[in-house]
Amino acid sequence: MDSYAGCSAVITGGASGIGLATAREFARRGARLMLADVNRAALDAAVADLRGAGADVRGVVCDVRRLDDVVALADAAFDEFGSVHVVFNNAGIAYAGPIAETSHDDWRFVLDVDLWGPIHGVEAFLPRLIAQQDPAHIAFTASFAGLMPNAGLGPYCVAKYGVVALAETLSREVRANGIGVTVLCPMIVETDLMANSRRVRGDEYGAGAPVGDLPAISTDPEVTAERVAELMADGILTNQLYVIPHSAARGSIRRRFERIDRTFDEQAAAGWTH
Ligand code: NAD
Q1: Residue ranges of the Ketoreductase domain (predicted)?
Q2: How large is the average pLDDT for residues 2-23?
């Protein structure tokens, strides 16, 4: 892909935050859009807003926890567009709390949305992207928490590490099919993530169960959802595997890999010979 002009893009979690900002950015660059979200009211408002700005956009209510919903989304996208050029698996929630206090329902909630959601996106879209003649790109929103352990974000880290692994593995496997892969790994970005997470959780995983509060991590005010959307749109065109918008992430990622690397020296010092 070398431009968005005339391309078609599907964005999950497109009614708010990073997904909606990316929809605006793709539309500005000439893409046709299909937004998917579990929140019908927000989706209708987002579609009306984008149409008002001249975008060619449709909304599909879709809960990424349900494979049937995501398959129906893929059906709708291929019916509408013929070919799909970008699939952005972005829908997600956050949950904060120490692992020792995390219930089985908490684990299910986080993994259902944040890990099964992107897996469903791959299951529903990948065979058809491979079969179509046009070039395509699969993008994911993981998190900095998909690259680094964050105390207090255990289930979220497990899910987002899984999304990073999915993207990294997929990028090796589908390169020969002309399909690019990008995974977005931001630190904190100002959105309605926690309020939306509480609403999405509902009563399905235990009535009134909380989603916690994100740890107070200072963040870069210049890295807005709009800036992340620009970086993502560029990253897809240049086929970047990783988009990591916050430069503050660099030191801790380096230290994690140095810690892993040091393990070999420690093992050698302990007399390991293999
Ligand atoms: P947001 O709440 O503004 O947007 C997320 C959208 O996803 C919402 O419209 C919500 O209704 C939708 N959604 C949630 N569960 C869904 C489901 N089961 N099916 C379909 N749609 C669903 O939040 P955001 O910050 O824009 O989040 C987007 C992605 O970015 C998420 O995957 C989140 O984990 C990730 N992320 C966010 C931050 C941050 O600080 N905001 C940091 C790192 C990663």
Answers
A1: 7-187
A2: 97
pLDDT in tens, 170-227: 999 999 999 999 999 999 999 999 999 999 998 788 756 677 777 666 678 899 999 9
The set of catalytic residues is: 156
Query: Is the shortest distance between the CB of 23 and ligand 1 below 6 Å?
Result: no
Ligand 1 touching residue 16 (CB < 6 A): yes
CA of 37 to the centre of ligand 1 (A): 10
Q: Tokens for 268, please give them.
A: 């050698």
Tokens (6 digits) for 249: 């992430």
Report domain extents, the chain: 8-248
Task: Say yes or no: CB of residue 91 within 6 Å of ligand 1.
Answer: yes
Can you tell me which residue has the tokens 């009306």? 48
CA dihedral 110, 113, 114, 119 (to 10 degrees): 130
Take atom 26 of ligand 1 and give the residue whose Cα is closest: 17
What b/e string do you get for 82-102 counting C-beta neighbours within 10 Å, with b at 16 or more?
Answer: eebbbbbbbbbbbbbbeeeeb
Q: Tell the residue nearest (CA) to atom 44 of ligand 1.
A: 143
**CATH number listed for the domain at residues 8-248:** 3.40.50.720
Instruction: Tell me, using a 6 A CB cutoff, whether residue 112 lines ligand 1.
Output: no
239, 180 contact by CB (below 8 A): yes
